[in-house]
């Protein structure tokens, strides 16, 4: 019903009370309209929006297997190769001819031995590095924190997995040793 | 109050509400997920994961509370209407 026109001198009729429920339904309830929110408009620091390809590439690079592959190829393989060549230089028992123990081995034999050892060490280091990096990434994703405990836990898992093939006790020792090694490296790096 | 007027008012209030929610969410998630050790400038994997989860939880809580609040306010208004009708007819 329309309100009666007020004659001059009479007080105006009181305004109808604000209906909060209707307002709330439009604000936070079911009758809300879907909107596109720009962080720059809401108070964030304005920056150009990332394209879809950029977001996809960044998401891919953050994934665990990518990081593990990086550690495996880059760190593990190279380090293992270097270590293998180094130990081949120190601990040579190549070209040992039982008939003639004092014969110095030929350069070709020495190089071949260094190459083989280097590759086998490199493969081992690469696998161990990839395992460690993968477990560390998974543990960090699960915990949601990044501190020293991640390295210790993943070191234990990696060492245990490696040692477990040789028996339970070797697995426990491997776990402890690798965890201590990772903790030391982490302490040095942080 | 007609629905159109309510919708207009809600649209004006929504911008303010969203800006406030964004600021509070940024503050809360930064306080919870990013410890104050600034050895490097990049976010580590754990921190990224934590921030994703924090934002998802915050938005879900916001949505549920909004629905609950509208429910409660509807109940309140119905109660008020019934009381007014009761006193009006009496």
TrEMBL record, chain A:
Keyword Transmembrane helix attached: yes
Primary localisation category: mitochondrion
Location within or outside the cell: Mitochondrion inner membrane
GO biological process: protein insertion into mitochondrial inner membrane
One Pfam family, short name: Tim17
GO cellular component: TIM22 mitochondrial import inner membrane insertion complex
Bilayer topology term: Multi-pass membrane protein
Assembly: Component of the TIM22 complex.
Summary of the function given for this chain in its UniProt record: Essential core component of the TIM22 complex, a complex that mediates the import and insertion of multi-pass transmembrane proteins into the mitochondrial inner membrane. In the TIM22 complex, it constitutes the voltage-activated and signal-gated channel. Forms a twin-pore translocase that uses the membrane potential as external driving force in 2 voltage-dependent steps.
UniProt-recorded name of the protein: Mitochondrial import inner membrane translocase subunit TIM22
Taxonomic source organism: Eulacestoma nigropectus (wattled ploughbill)
TrEMBL record, chain B:
Domain spans labelled Tim10-like: 7-71
GO CC annotation: mitochondrial inner membrane; mitochondrial intermembrane space chaperone complex
Pfam families for the chain: zf-Tim10_DDP
Record GO terms (molecular function): metal ion binding
Subcellular location per the Swiss-Prot or TrEMBL entry: Mitochondrion inner membrane
Function recorded in the entry: Mitochondrial intermembrane chaperone that participates in the import and insertion of multi-pass transmembrane proteins into the mitochondrial inner membrane. May also be required for the transfer of beta-barrel precursors from the TOM complex to the sorting and assembly machinery (SAM complex) of the outer membrane. Acts as a chaperone-like protein that protects the hydrophobic precursors from aggregation and guide them through the mitochondrial intermembrane space.
UniProt cross-references to Gene3D superfamilies, sorted A to Z: Mitochondrial import inner membrane translocase subunit tim13 like domains
Keywords of this entry: Chaperone, Disulfide bond, Membrane, Metal-binding, Mitochondrion, Mitochondrion inner membrane, Protein transport, Translocation, Transport, Zinc
Assembly notes: Heterohexamer.
Protein name according to UniProt: Mitochondrial import inner membrane translocase subunit
InterPro entries reported for this sequence: Tim10-like, Tim10-like_dom_sf
Record's comment describing the protein's domains: The twin CX3C motif contains 4 conserved Cys residues that form 2 disulfide bonds in the mitochondrial intermembrane space.
Main location: mitochondrion
Family under the similarity heading: Belongs to the small Tim family.
Superkingdom of origin organism: Eukaryota
Topology term for the membrane: Peripheral membrane protein
GO biological process assignments: protein insertion into mitochondrial inner membrane; protein transport
């Amino acid at each position: 019903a329309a309100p009666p026109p007020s004659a001059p001198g009479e007080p105006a009729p009181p305004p109808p009370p604000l209906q909060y429920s209707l307002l709330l339904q439009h604000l936070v309830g079911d009758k809300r309209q879907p909107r596109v929110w720009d962080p720059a408009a809401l108070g964030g620091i304005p920056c150009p929006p990332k394209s879809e390809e950029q977001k996809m590439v960044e998401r891919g690079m953050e994934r665990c297997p990518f990081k593990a592959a990086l550690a495996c190829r880059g760190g593990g393989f190279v380090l293992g190769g270097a270590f293998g060549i180094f130990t081949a230089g120190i601990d040579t028992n190549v070209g040992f001819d039982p008939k003639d123990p004092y014969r110095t081995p030929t350069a070709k034999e020495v190089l071949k031995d260094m190459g083989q050892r280097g590759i086998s060490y490199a493969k081992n280091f690469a696998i161990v590095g990839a395992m460690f990096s993968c477990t560390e990434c998974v543990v960090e994703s699960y915990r949601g924190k990044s501190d020293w405990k991640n390295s210790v836990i993943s070191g234990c898992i990696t060492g245990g997995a490696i040692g477990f093939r040789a028996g339970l006790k070797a697995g426990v020792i491997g776990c402890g040793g690798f965890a201590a090694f990772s903790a030391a490296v982490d302490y040095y790096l942080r | 109050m007609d629905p159109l007027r309510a919708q207009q008012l809600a649209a004006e209030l929504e911008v303010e509400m969203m800006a406030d929610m964004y600021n509070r969410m940024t503050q809360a998630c930064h306080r919870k997920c990013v410890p104050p050790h600034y050895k490097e400038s990049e976010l580590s994997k754990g921190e990224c994961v934590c921030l994703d989860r924090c934002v998802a939880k915050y938005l879900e809580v916001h949505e549920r509370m909004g629905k609950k609040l509208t429910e409660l306010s509807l109940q309140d208004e119905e109660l008020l209407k019934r009381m007014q009708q009761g006193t009006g007819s009496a």
